[in-house]
Amino acid sequence: xxxxxxxxxxxxxxxxxxxxxxxxxxxxxxxxxxxxxxxxxxxxxxxxxxxxxxxxxxxxxxxxxxxxxxxxxxxxxxxxxxxxxxxxxxxxxxxxxxxxxxxxxxxxxxxxxxxxxxxxxxxxxxxxxxxxxxxxxxxxxxxxxxxxxxxxxxxxxxxxxxxxxxxxxxxxxxxxxxxxxxxxxxxxxxxxxxxxxxxxxxxxxxxxxxxxxxxxxxxxxxxxxxxxxxxxxxxxxxxxxxxxxxxxxxxxxxxxxxxxxxxxxxxxxxxxxxxxxxxxxxxxxxxxxxxxxxxxxxxxxxxxxxxxxxxxxxxxxxxxxxxxxxxxxxxxxxxxxxxxxxxxxxxxxxxxxxxxxxxxxxxxxxxxxxxxxxxxxxxxxxxxxxxxxxxxxxxxxxxxxxxxxxxxxxxxxxxxxxxxxxxxxxxxxxxxxxxxxxxxxxxxxxxxxxxxxxxxxxxxxxxxxxxxxxxxxxxxxxxxxxxxxxxxxxxxxxxxxxxxxxxxxxxxxxxxxxxxxxxxxxxxxxxxxxxxxxxxxxxxxxxxxxxxxxxxxxxxxxxxxxxxxxxxxxxxxxxxxxxxxxxxxxxxxxxxxxxxxxxxxxxxxxxxxxxxxxxxxxxxxxxxxxxxxxxxxxxxxxxxxxxxxxxxxx
Amino acid sequence: xxxxxxxxxxxxxxxxxxxxxxxxxxxxxxxxxxxxxxxxxxxxxxxxxxxxxxxxxxxxxxxxxxxxxxxxxxxxxxxxxxxxxxxxxxxxxxxxxxxxxxxxxxxxxxxxxxxxxxxxxxxxxxxxxxxxxxxxxxxxxxxxxxxxxxxxxxxxxxxxxxxxxxxxxxxxxxxxxxxxxxxxxxxxxxxxxxxxxxxxxxxxxxxxxxxxxxxxxxxxxxxxxxxxxxxxxxxxxxxxxxxxxxx
Lengths: 650, 247
Prior knowledge:
Chain A is of the alpha+beta class. Helix content of chain A is 30%, strand content 24%.
């Protein structure tokens, strides 16, 4: 009786039940049950359960049943291994109640043969179908190792720009099937699969019809459910499912396309894709024509949709599908000013964040780099860079989320994220002001060079820690931490600083001539009549510049990710150009009083020094030596502390 | 008509109008009720914090010590000035707080090691100002995920425990034990007729009992989640996040 609880594997989802699971029940299935709407859940007339492993094993001796990978109104899908061919397959078991319908077997055979003929790279192949000995109607299909479009959109791994790469593939598949006289009838994100190699595969061709006829009959008896997914159905399909042709599929495709671009459904009086998502306005017309209520006015063939999309995509530069190799040569993604791409990038962020409070365009005005201070293999040819505007979106989070760490109420703690559009360098500069002199602290600065996909750098943390009140009542900041957001760790700097006051309001962003943003983090109070020897302000500056070639790792200290390269310090940008930039945006409250003096760069690090230089080698050796000394001292201190404790205890 | 007639969960539901988390938020942690509420919440979600800290602590013991320290500081400070309703969920708040805590512990360690605040000799800031930096890898987010997963497990655990208590007090523990497999959905491994025979009920009554058990489970889960969010509308969203966390 308790056989179910002895197994470590969940009999329902096939997943492993963790040891800490309460009552020995599968947490995933429990949570899934809990998230069902109360009315529809379970009850005396619960939906049919998936067939058991034993029943399947008996019915399909040629297969090794691995796990349940999907279920819905159209039955259950299992991942299985075809033993003889040693290949993975998907086994779809149609609802068992079908066996009660004698006419179904004949129809199934007829349709099954047609489906098995659909041989196209973008259509999930049907290997076999039939009626298993114990009454399961089944389809044996190609197994697609990947995710469906719904999952991809939810997981955020899907960028709107990829819609332009995916839609033509769907069109090809539809056109092919339509030529064979087969309609899909249930195009929706769940049926569009993206495999690990970035290929698009449409699943469940014709299944809706197969089951639909049966459901239509069931409806007459009052027991049937709504056929298909109404949101994706063409008007004529909803009104009279008997009278549909291939143009119903085109309507459904339009809904999917719209959803990919905007994240929403075209219901009621809906916004144009370009209004909602920064999509190319030319796409509006393409999408609207697929969504025409009257099918006579709709785009008539899937092939036409494909052509229209490709024309627009061709002029906008289509990114590779996920998993496809990034082109190594500049040009495809970087070659031309790419307004469309940029808007897509922003669209992505808009999907990610609720409401950006400030956005502005950034133009590259940097002076040509001085040869002497750029990295040897200058990855960022700023000189001669196109004067292309880019868009930087500061998230809402940064300023609203400025918060005082509840554990250490005197501390300051800011968190924000920022978008780096495709093909851009984002330089995060840490700027300190002292008596009107801005100092770029290279050690705290960081950068990120982004490839063909935009990157949202999250969890950028800036905290000012250990604010202490001295015996004289003077508050001191002893520590700053900057965490650029790509590795979750922070860098730190220790120093004792002069009187300091935290800004009572959120840090403010100062926009200036569309080139950079300065975020004033804190100000340091100067006692009246004194000259401040320490800082008077702390800022973070964000500067965006277009890249002209895909980012490559040029320094062993850089972090190399698939789509971007990031590092601490200053990117291969000349000192002079940075200083010029800072000069254009004086934010120092006392600048007028003191006059803005020449900015400085401290802790220049690798920015101005060749990694091979003798100077750097020497510095590193010296550092290693110091570290050893510190470690030794530390051990010594620890021993002393232990000894003191020991003595105290006595 | 007596008091004992009212089902236990109705009384519980009415108590949830003001949730524990909203109580904390409204008083900014600064009333006795808010402190008690925060304390209850922290006690309930001890496990996810321990799981998170365990990922960065050298061993189990240090993780427990650090977790104790974390909660001690959190509860002692009850400084919630920066917390506002918009910040939403208790889960996010606690994760943020524990990250800050660990960050501070780390900084503290490094500070002592590195000369206790003496000015540093800056030679190679590329490494000097970023001590202990580790290259990000694909597991970088694992502690966050583990936190959420553990949170979901804790929630389920609490809900099931509440369900068990309710059945015990009603003298129906047998029924719960027999019917609990259906909490995860329909099952073919166990025959409802057998269960009906064992419980001395007819099959229809078993179906109804399963339906009620599931409905009650869902209610408890949603109430539990309701305690940790600031808006009723966030319950469904939180439920989805937790489902994903278990995936």
